[in-house]
Amino acid sequence: MRRLRVAWTPAACILMGAAFAAGPAGSAPATPGPAPVAGLRTYLFDASGSKLGFTVTRPGEVHEGTATQFNGTVRLDPEHPEQGSGVTLKVDAATMVTGNRIRDRTMRNSHLETEKYPEIRFESAAAVPAKPGPLRAGETRGFDVEGRLTMHGVERTVKIPVMVGYDGALLTADGNVSFTLTEFSIPIPKFLWYVLDDKVTVNFHAVAKPGEPPAKPIGAPAKAGSR
Fold it and tell me: Which of 30, 35, 77, 168 has its CA 20 to 30 A from that of 142?
C-alpha cells in the first residue's frame, strides 16, 4: 500500500488551526464549566485513626459492631467552610463484624446480602456550619451534613450532626445517626423468640489527612504479580 505524503506548509497549518478553533459548521461556542471553588481542599480518611461503628439493641441487650474497611474524602476550605464543603464515604459491607462469626455470616448473607450489594455509600449534598467564618486551628465547630445514604440497594436522605475539629492540617469528625433497617428493606434479625430492634445507630470518629483519592476503588482486586 502506497503512503500519501502531505506537505504541511505554513498556510496549511494556519488553515488547519482555524478550522479546529471554529469547530463544526454551525456549532455554538463552548460554554465554560463552573469555576472550581478557590481554596477548597481534599482530605482523605485515615482508616488507622478512624472508627466506624454501629449499635443494635433489644430489651436488656446491646449488640455492637464495626466496619473494618472503608475510605472516603472530605472537601473543605478552612477559610470559607460554608462554601462547597462535603464528604463521600464508601464502606465494604462484607467487612462489618460484631465479634460473633455465626452472627456475622448471617448478617452478611441474609440481611445485608453483601454479594449482591457489596458497598454502603454516603455522599453529602450540603454541609452547613453552625456559624460562618474561617475555621481556625484548634477550633471545633458543628456542621449539619445532609446527603444520600445507599445501602442494600435502597437510597435514603439522612441528616447528620457532626462536630468537626481542625488543627491546621488534620481534620477530625465525630457524630452519630440513627435509622431503621426496614427503611432499607433489610429484614429485622430474629431467631425464634429472639428479635432485635428495628433501629440502628451508626457512630463514628474520623480522622482525615490532606491528599488525593486513590485510583483503585474500594475492594478492587490487586493486579497480577502485585504484592
Answer: 35
